[in-house]
Amino acid sequence: MTDIVIISSSIRDGRKSHRVALFFQQFIKSKGYETPHILDLKDYSFPLFEERLARMTDPEPKWEEFAGRINGADGVIIVTPEYNGGYPASLKNAIDFMYKEWHRKPMALAAVSDGPFAGTQVIMSLQFTLWKIGAWTVPARYHVPNVDKTYDDSGRSLNPEITDKLAGAFVDELMWCVQAKQKMDESEKS
Prior knowledge:
By secondary structure, this protein is an alpha/beta fold. The chain has helices at 18-30, 61-72, 89-97, 120-132, 147-150, 160-189, and strands at 4-8, 37-40, 75-81, 106-112, 136-144.
């Protein structure tokens, strides 16, 4: 059983990137894997970063639950919109809030935009942040241009011939990295 977590990064009203998180949840389940859990940052209300969770004296139980889900996950997909070339503060807070939970965690990045550029700039800044904390970002990326024309509100693809092919390669790369990490962890134990 492979435990994949999907982080839906936007907390805005009317957000559209959440459609892609829903799509991946359905897509991964359709491929015969365990249904991924969506960690919707809108549900966690992380405070502005002042201190890491591990150093807090009285953290909210939901923040500890979030960290536990990340720590226990075999792999993580981050779905993020691009805001002015970067990712939302809600995601930066969640990343900074933890540290050891991200270490050597296979992570796949999906970028979403309303326009034609498909979040190409956000991946670079997000990847750099994840590298700095020791996460393992997988080589495959998933870029979504014109999200309104690509996914409906329930996460259903409006052009499955294209999206399923791209999503298949993206998920396969994540799963390969997850399996490689599991083998490395096993060899370290022996």
